[in-house]
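Both lines are retained for reference:
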Amino acid sequence: MSAETLDDATLRAWDIAHLWHPFTPQGDWAESTPIIISHADGFDLIDTEGNRYLDGVGSLWCNVHGHRHPKLDAAIRDQLDRVAHSTLLGLTHRPAIELARRLVEITPKGLNRVFFSDDGSTAVEVALKLAYQYFQQKAQPEPKRTKFLAFTNAYHGDTLGDVSLGGIKGFHGLFSPLLFPVLRAPSPHCYRCPIQLTRPSCQIACLGEVARLLEEHPGEVAAVVIEPLVQGAAGMIVHPEGFLRGLRELTHQHGTLLIADEVAVGFGRTGKMFACEHEDVSPDILCLAKGLTGGYMPLAATLTTDQVHSAFIGSAADGKTFAHGHTFCGNPLGAAVALANLEIFASEKLIDQLPAKVEHLSRRLEEFHQLTHVGDVRQKGLIAGIELVADRATKTPYPSENLMGRQICNLARSLGVFIRPLGDVLVVMPAPAMPLDKIDRLIDVMLSCTYQVTEFK
């Protein structure tokens, strides 16, 4: 039976029988009627029945310029005529070389070395191993630097090293016996401050907790790991201005590395190309993925400084090699489309267009404050989170079994807008190139659905 002759009922039955979807309750999925995406057009996904859905999540926060952008499509076709894959172990190729150079040119100053991998999780896993090995074999080794400092509510991926950094119980708690311990600092979550203070009088006191941990473990911390400006999977928690800058200063003072995980916030989503630019921060290690290829291909990059790289220079006999690699790291198809993605950023001046879009989105988000059960609306650039609460005055959340966020997203889907919640936080994450009329439609549907679900249920 050819793919063209399969009907939707057969495909759905096969899906439920065989396909295990990520972050998806299997019992609920088995009772559902899966939407089968057939193709896409611009910022819309189109199912096998011809129904269109505005892609309100940017295909999980990675689509940048919309679907089927002609320049991105052409880049893959052109590279396919040359070579689809060739390893970087013992060989090299032009797309990876050119992409490494281009990333060095556009990322924060000092990041001159690029290690390619597959996705956001692997980019962070690479960073952890680089940081650890650096201190073991640099010119003046610091072998006691084996610890990492991360934050509550952190999410850095799903490999075991990344899960060790993670601070979200629902994602990471079950695996605690498998993980290495980390030092845990409180998340700078101003709406639900972990140290019961308020902005701006708090003067970013949560930084003091980071300082305390570093002082209590002198010479032991290899790196502090942060999602700059916004903790995504935690519910779009936006950090107070100055937190990242202060963190950079603390890491300098204590001789530890700063790892910036920009997998979700990079490539224009915060209003600048990279989130670190907002506070003029150059990390020691920068992790990129998602928007690196415009959302087309799995590809990730971990960038670091010449200083870190210098600890790995030696012959095979010296034993300093970074013994880590991925079969498809630096894949030519992925690298080629990533280069085309960066060229579109430049030729279409996408970053220059963002301030007007960010301001427009900010005005539209203000409308959510009119709804009784919206407790907080937080935004950075084109990233926003709308937190639903049972009682605004006390910030009391809804009972988890109410699944308010899911109810709203299901209703939005019936109206042709695809969004996904993070618990009872509605996520706003349009592709950076999404035009204003599409952003308006996204917000209009979200407002209407939030009103209907929270006011009448």
